[in-house]
Amino acid sequence: MSTALSRRALAGLALLPVVGCATPPAQAQRGALLPDFADLAERVLPAVVSISVTSEARADIPPELRGTPFERYFRERERGRGRGPQVQGAGSGFVIDPAGLLVTNNHVIGNATRVQVTFQNGQEYQARLVGSDELTDLALLRIEARGTLPALAWGSSGSMRVGNWVLAAGNPFGLGGSITSGIVSARGREIGAGPFDDFIQTDAPINPGNSGGPLFNTAGEVIGINTAIYSPSGASAGIGFAVPSDLARGVIDQLRGNGRVERGWLGVSVQDVGSEPGATPTATPAGGVLVAGVERGSPAARAGLRQGDQVVAINGEAVATSRALVRGIAAVTPGQTVRLSILRNGRPTDVPVQVGRRPTAPG
What are the residue numbers of the active site? Predict the structure, then answer.
């Protein structure tokens, strides 16, 4: 830096206050407005765990051998050479039941052969998988606890507003219990992860290893599960995404009760009205969702739904987008009957449909 540039830069700087001088009133007021999360962090961190997983790398079978008698020979030969290389991974989780139930991300567990959880006090446990759900990237673990564990309570993600303070806790870069703060920067984010995208976006620093950790409100309640980041560099870029608690709670309850998640299914392909080629967003004042196709033998086909029908409501509740229709039907217990209000050739009618069970990989 040149001498002239240094002088210009120094001319724009103010000297730091001398130690012992009175703090200006405006500065003191700003300091009083800044939040202090020390008590909150001390209360919630004991229930947040670091998760380390060990997975056995799967041998790649040449495509030309798959589905042939040589595939079995290839697998037996690989097993005969001993166990494959071990793959290590790390993530985060949190306790929701003092008896030993923990929540994390499904992608943290993956195909792990060994899962170990470590608490802030250094206690370690081997965990087993109770159940997982790929569509929401959630998993439920159980450990045999030595005594009552500290546990966290669910909060309402629906009550969160853009600008609310939040805290993220977890195991970034494998460093162990860490906590960061920020605000809710957006809600209802769709990032292409799946049909149930409804992420809370936050600028609280979230890094690799934070996956599966909790996102708190200032009451210390879990309002999200940290799942993904937007990062060109691989580290926090100030945009993190969390599965909202209002969605996660129902999934975890099903995993806890059944070890799996069952969702309602119609068997239709749908699109938003106005998104079809040649249409305009004002194609109809009724709005709704256009049925683009009906799978043969599906619940929708048995109920008489047709291509070109326009679904405007489920049990009287208006449906504005295809994503809302998918989510609304998914929330229905398979076997129950719902009333779809539709427009067919411009005429309104109601169609009762007995909802089916969503296949593992629907077409």
Answer: 107, 137, 211
